[in-house]
Amino acid sequence: MMTAVTVKEFTYTPNGVKVEVLSEHDEGEYKMVKSLTTGKVFFAHRNQIDEIVKEAELEAKDVKQRRGRQIVKPEIQAFNRTNINSATPQLLTQVLKGVGLKTATEIKELQQSMPGERFTKLEQLKSITRVDWDSVLEGDHVYVE
């Protein structure tokens, strides 16, 4: 038997990372959020958080009885996204299709030449011309933080 449950996911819009809302402050104006990929905790304005509501189906074995009421624990998939700024060249070759070790090393060298030695936007990668970045980035497997 399958049970439908509403699952809320949140995205931090400046860089597209999935976050968990920990608390609200200033009457909901600001939220303390935690990155689901890195575990970093930070504050975000309510306009920077997009809420995605999804219907998830759970099997009956995931429904538990507790003090006369049903508690449903949804299984939320882990997000398999990689931060370009913290990835090694070897990891980039596995995550980015069509990128070999030479290009991945060039990406890291470009990162080192950036202010603060960090990418701030994925579009900055497009200065490396050997890669079809539109097809690589459409998979939503990478982000910058």
If you had to describe this structure to a student in words, what would you say it looks like?
With 145 residues, this protein is α+β, with helices and mostly antiparallel strands. The chain folds into two domains: 2-59, SH3 type barrels (Roll); 82-143. Helix content is 17%, strand content 37%. It has helices at residues 89-95, 101-113, 133-137; strands spanning 2-12, 17-25, 30-35, 41-45, 49-59, 63-66, 69-72, 82-83, 142-143. The strands form three sheets. A five-stranded antiparallel β-sheet has the order 4-3-2-1-5, with no helix packed on it. The chain has a two-stranded antiparallel ribbon with strand order 6-7. It is elongated and about 50 Å long. The relative contact order is 0.17. The model is unreliable at 73-78 (pLDDT under 50).
